[in-house]
Design brief:
Blueprint: H1 5-16, H2 21-35, E1 41-45, H3 51-57, E2 62-67, H4 70-79, E3 85-87, E4 99-104, H5 115-126, E5 129-137, E6 150-158, E7 161-172, E8 175-186, E9 189-200, H6 204-213, E10 216-221, E11 230-235
Parallel strand pairs: 1-2, 1-4, 2-3, 4-5
Antiparallel strand pairs: 5-11, 6-7, 7-8, 8-9, 10-11
Helix pairs in contact: 1-4, 2-3, 5-6
Length: 236
Amino acid sequence: MYENVSAAEMYDLLYQDRKDYRAEAEHVAGLIRAHRPDAGSLLDVACGTGIHLEAFAGLFAQVEGIDLAKPMVEVAAERLPGVPLHLGDMRTFHLDRTFDAIVCMFSSIGYLRSAADLDRTLSAMAGHLAPGGVVVIEPWYFPENFLDGHVSGHALTWDNRTITRVSHSTRQGDAVRMELHYVVADSGGVQHRSEIDLLTLFTRDQYEAAYSRAGLKAEYQESPGSGPGFFVGVRS
């Protein structure tokens, strides 16, 4: 997706304009501490540019992040000097330590392509979880609540630059094909970029089964707003 630092920074600007990252982090911290009140360490899987991780750093004594995209990690490193950040695949990562809590935010889990990938990811997470630790995943849409043909748009002007993002999403079997177009206008002119994202419509049963196979007892929690909710799993 975000093949360079410029694209990652554009992502930052767009989503900080439309998401309350701090409120989301505080909500997830509450879900974690409902099961592990003394949780002091947290790993953010698919941490992106580190906006959620920055909020978590104010809520937990020790935080780390991991992401597959190098440009995202580079932007996160600028935002979070001194915070350990890792390049890695959520299905296969190995950090040689454990955490009280592991999170995967902003529906990043949807980029996995199969139930087998979901199993591998939960297994990798469980392998990095301390006894009594908690895994919180924000899912992508479920098959029954995805709106085929959904259109989304957003625009902002910041520091003499205007950015627009539009998307069109269609269902293809158990996946969503999301076509995205970005237009950036500044003093140097107008630039356009586009991408196609594929996200899997895992069922609630598939999420819960993956948690169970990883040795985690999971429950689904609705979001306080209109978000997709969260799966919360605890290692016994």
